[in-house]
Specification:
CATH topology of the largest domain: Immunoglobulin-like
Low-confidence stretches: 1-25, 366-379
Radius of gyration: 63 Å
Strand content: over 45%
Largest sheet: 7 strands, mixed
Mean pLDDT: 81
Distance between the termini: 221 Å
Helix content: under 10%
Length: about 375
């Protein structure tokens, strides 16, 4: 068979996987690339290269993240090259898979010569784009292979540049979600005294305690809490922790004490400053009750009034159920009207006809003083 020479090397993708790693919430790219001679109609492999890299699926805008890269000269029946050199390895972020590059890692220009079965590995640090969005993460590297004789073809030594975008329509580089960074200050805890749900009385003080953590990379200077002015009527700031610096990763405690002089419903705005810049604010809602002493007097009066009413009701009920004693009464007596004596039958003198006494004597004699009297001879 006649030996053919060619300086053209064809790069072709065999397999590409875009795998989410749910355990660590990361994205990985895994593929196998190979080299064959363009003049070989069967496109038989001269060398297989395994390409893998992994990265977080979400990062903060402008933040640093790491990409773990490995390039392997696969040891199999296709390993026709005596060795392969890997060099100029670099990672990029892109808006489009094909570019242009937005951010890039440092270039690893070291040349590592690998025989079949050996692997190039390195972790690259790269800055995320500054604008929240979705981006592609591409990998570039170069290889150099010596003269290869295989399948009746001769391939001369040649340097080849590789780009994961060359996978074309079969696969895309992994995606990276860039998120808006959270505030550099993180609220770790907030406590209130009295606790939420407990009564607050007029003249008392509410104490709010905050713990803040600096999640940024620089010192935050003159961090402080204060109240919006003017404060509501009958509300005053009694105490507030003086402004202090917070180092990266450090946690500091801040105390704010607010006095409420009278009962009522209040809304107080608490402000958080870093230096002269207002970075956050919150509303503290407080319901202040009357002082307990005035409530006790009122309650005591009500209880006394209720007891008096109950006593009166009980007395009335008892009186209704006890029988009244009978009032003694004189026996009914109707005096008999004096009866008139039945007049005795009148008697008259038989001589003169004048009335006679009971003894039958003529009464004419008693009238002798009367000039007209005439003595009854019947006596």
């Amino acid at each position: 068979m006649k030996t053919l020479r060619s300086e053209i090397l064809i790069i072709f993708l065999v397999l590409a996987l875009f795998l989410p790693l749910s355990e660590v919430f990361a994205t990985s790219y895994r593929s196998t690339w190979y080299i064959y001679n363009l003049d070989d109609p069967q496109k038989r492999h001269l060398a297989d290269i395994g390409v893998e890299y992994a990265l977080p699926d979400k990062v903060e805008a402008g933040g640093q993240f790491e990409v773990e890269v490995s390039l392997t000269y696969v040891k199999n029946e296709n390993a026709k090259s005596a060795w392969i050199e890997f060099f100029d390895v670099i990672v990029h972020t892109r808006t489009l898979p094909s570019g242009p590059n937005l951010t890039s890692s440092r270039l690893d220009s070291s040349r590592l010569r690998m025989i079949a079965g050996e692997k190039y590995s390195r972790t690259f640090s790269i800055e995320a784009p500054s604008e929240p969005s979705e981006y592609f993460v591409a990998l570039n590297w170069k290889t150099f292979a010596p003269r290869i004789e295989a399948y009746g073809f001769v391939t001369d030594p040649r340097e080849i540049g590789w780009d994961t975008w060359d996978t074309g329509r079969w696969s895309l580089p992994p995606r990276l979600v860039v998120q808006k960074p959270p505030p550099a200050l993180e609220l770790i805890s907030r406590t209130l005294s009295p606790k939420e749900g407990e009564p607050i009385y007029s003249g008392e003080t509410v104490t709010a305690t905050y713990e803040l953590k600096n999640r940024g990379k620089t010192i935050l200077k003159a961090v402080k809490f204060t109240l919006e002015t003017p404060t509501p009527k009958d509300v005053s700031l009694v105490e507030a922790t003086l402004a202090r610096d917070i180092s990266p990763g450090a946690i500091e405690k801040f105390v704010v004490k607010i006095k409420f002089d009278k009962e009522g419903n209040y809304k107080v705005k608490i402000l958080l400053y870093v230096g002269e810049v207002l970075v956050d604010e919150g509303i503290l809602t407080v319901q202040v009750s009357p002082h307990p002493f005035s409530n006790l007097v009122l309650i005591g009066g009500v209880i006394a009034l209720v007891l008096v009413i109950l006593a009166a009701i009980v007395l009335v009920i008892r009186r209704r159920h006890v029988p009244r004693p009978e009032t003694p009464t004189a026996p009914a007596y109707t005096p008999a009207s004096p009866s008139r004596a039945t007049p005795a039958a009148a008697k008259y003198c038989m001589s003169c006809g004048a009335p006679t006494s009971t003894a039958g004597r003529c009464l004419q004699r008693r009238l002798m003083s009367t000039p007209l009297a005439v003595l009854c001879v019947g006596e």
